[in-house]
Amino acid sequence: MTYSIEDTMVSCADGYMLAASIYTPKTNYKGAILIGPATGIKRQFYTGISAYLAENGFAVLTYDNRGIAESLHGDVKQNDATLQSWGELDQPAALSYLIKCFPNTTYHLLGHSAGGQLFGLFPSAQQLSSVFNYACSSGSLSNMAKRHLGQAHFFMNFFIPVSNAIFGYTKADWVGMGEPLPKRVAQQWQEWCNGSGYVKMGFNKTIDKHYFDSLTLPTMWVNSTDDAIANNTNVLDMINVFPNITAERKTLHPADYGLKEIGHMKFFSRKSQSLWKLPLSWFEKHSN
């Protein structure tokens, strides 16, 4: 292999420990990339693209958010994680660790869904040279096509509250939505997706201070025509929460890449490697 992989632990400002993996190229690295995971998705899901980026000269750090997979300590019913804590505590800790491991280079975020929606919650995001987001949108139910609304409302407004009431957490794994979710993560997800602007729903409520207005870095927002959640309207709704960033957009058509589907998740599948040159080219462009 042209890179090595090491599992490690990352300490957050409040002392919470996150499981993480570091991919280190064996040659001089071009830059360092933090992969921000989607809601309830464990870091191993990003192994393929992490290896690809490392093979092409980038250091990579993947991590599990608190309450998820190997970053769940104890009973999920007792875990007090929120989406907000993922942005205010987990992502900045992971970025800080990446910078510590790979000093004096450029730093980038590859965000997937929630992993690219929350970086305005911490001031050290200013240290990022660029962001490449896939399937990052407000997820607003009001902007979803009617044919998808039944399923979306079932999960958000029936399954989440019922599962929380019965089990004390959301059994998202029962409906193919990743790992089991701590109760407050799922509650905040439900609240934010029933409004507009996603994280903006928490401004002046649970979120007293944020940095969405001050970020000016270059960003690329990619979605697919077969993604019911991150449709064009919802992607724009999320971009508008970052009023001063430079935002480029690209909507993928699966057939253009010889693929039957991409959707919300399969950009990161090894079957979709033809798509991975998109983030690679973006990061190479912004590492000079």
**Total DSSP E strands:** 10
Order of helices and strands: EEEHEHEEHEEHEHEH
Number of domains: 1
Shape: globular
Q: Would you identify the CATH architecture?
A: 3-Layer(aba) Sandwich
CATH superfamily: Alpha/Beta hydrolase fold, catalytic domain
Determine the strand fraction and express it as a percent band: 15-25%
Query: How far from one another are the termini?
Result: 25 Å
- How much is the radius of gyration in Å? 18 Å
Helix content range: 25-40%
* CATH structural class: Alpha Beta
- Give the integer mean of the pLDDT values: 97
If strands are numbered along the chain, what order do they take across the biggest sheet?
1-2-4-3-5-6-9-10
Global structural class = alpha/beta
As for the CATH topology, it is Rossmann fold
Task: List low-confidence stretches.
Answer: none
Tally of alpha and pi helices? 6
Largest sheet: 8 strands, mixed
Task: Please provide a written account of the structure.
- The chain is an alpha/beta fold and 288 residues long.
- The protein has one domain: Alpha/Beta hydrolase fold, catalytic domain (Rossmann fold, 3-Layer(aba) Sandwich).
- 27% of the residues lie in helices and 20% in strands.
- It contains 6 helices and 10 strands, in the order E-E-E-H-E-H-E-E-H-E-E-H-E-H-E-H.
- An 8-stranded mixed β-sheet has the order 1-2-4-3-5-6-9-10, sandwiched between helices. A two-stranded antiparallel sheet has the order 7-8.
- Helix 3 packs antiparallel against helix 4.
